[in-house]
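2 proteins. here.
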Amino acid sequence: MPTNFNITITRVKRAIDKLSPNKAPGPDEIPNHILKRCLSTLQHHILALAQQSMSTSHFPQPFKGTITLVLRKPNKPNYTKPNAYRPIALESTVGKVLESIMANHVSYLCETFNLLPKHHFSGRPGRTTEDAMIVGKHLPSLEGWKSLLSITHGCCRSFQ
């Protein structure tokens, strides 16, 4: 399977555009809105970093670190229980950009070369939990229902 992957300024800009401007920064202490605002100055440096990371198959250690905050969920009756809290991992801003570029490419390869089963819905462009439930209704086998229940369980857990 050909995987010629050329990281371009367009891919870098797209990854930075997807960053939410008001999210808290991670260990690199670079706020997303600063990266967005300074894109014209930084884009060639980020491009060189992304290309080098790709060509050497190396993700720099400083971009792997996170800061984890544990926040109380509002209106919980008992804060002595672990599920009354939500951990939030703050990642390196530049690391998120590099990960986004790679994730988009992996997604492209999966869709282009049909690398995922046709009934796999999670994390795929243009597929929703509602689509999975509609397909699940038409899967009489136990395996089909196991797949649907797994998708539904994952979706419900993300909203707790």
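next one coming up
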Amino acid sequence: MSVRCCIGLVCVLLGWLPGLAWSQGSGPALVADRLADGAAEPVIDGRVVEDVWRSAVAYTDFTQQDPSEGAPATERTEVRVLVGRGNLFISVICFDTDPSRIIASQSRRDATLTDVDSIIVALDTFNDSQNAFIFGTNALGIQYDGQVASEGQTSGVQSSAGASTGRGGIGAFNANWDGDWDVKAQVTERGWEAEMIIPLQTLRYPTGVDRTWGFNVMRNIRHKNEQVYLAPIPRGFDIYRVSMAAKLGGLNLPGRRDISVTPYALGSVNKDYTRLSDQLDPNADVGFDLKWGSAAESDLRRNREHGLRAGRGRRRAGEPDTLRRVLSREAHVLPRECLDISVRVAAGDRLVLLPPDWLESVRTAN
């Protein structure tokens, strides 16, 4: 082997080994504070001043990704996490030596956060190092949320953290997901501050005592072109790199059972231009969308009182149409205590909830 080849091989290894160290490293271990019985909940107003926040542990060790990778952040950031009363509370104080330079120019939900001072929080609630819920905001307190699958490596339109893929976009980041949560933020004499309240029923997670989630926070200090992370992320990756997140322990997670019902009305008018008549064919439909998050697995059966629509054939009135939908994330099947079932019911449908062993008993009978 020539000397030139040996030198080239050494250079390749030197460039590869730091990346290996990054990928094998683990983020810091954190513990969520618990909201004590009888203690007042923090007021979500964008000012982190309540006693319950002062008594909570502040995590401040942020590391730069840009412009100086691996260097400490030039501005102090304090993150606190509380859990209790069925909610997850997160506060962030983004200290700034010159608050007048803070950039805040977006006020609509899911607007891009790359060009403003902002924070983004990733919650890997299954601790699988693959998938996460994303929550973000800027100094105006906008809501930015979505879901990350497979660390952002799925096919489709890719986007950097904080950049919206747009409604209907397909990619590693699903911006179409809008969770039920609230956030308030404002510029203060310290810099800017934000408070989030996320109901646990908004999330999906395995229940239990002293659970652990993946957890990371990214702060964008736009007027300095600086991005810093609580759990360091190397260049070329972003907060979607869930496997490099910190671990947030001390979570006591209750079971969840909630039902969401959204009524709808649909109408249309069709005209066949191949016919000479001006006859119109009006259509109308009403019903509701049912989403059921349960602590136990169930099956759904729809009994449609009329024949199936064209393209699906016809059947006798009252003949059961069995629907069994189990949500999965690629090879990861959601635990039964976190099953979600969604179904649209139109006029004339009758929805019957059946016990978990119903489908098996039908198979045995047949």
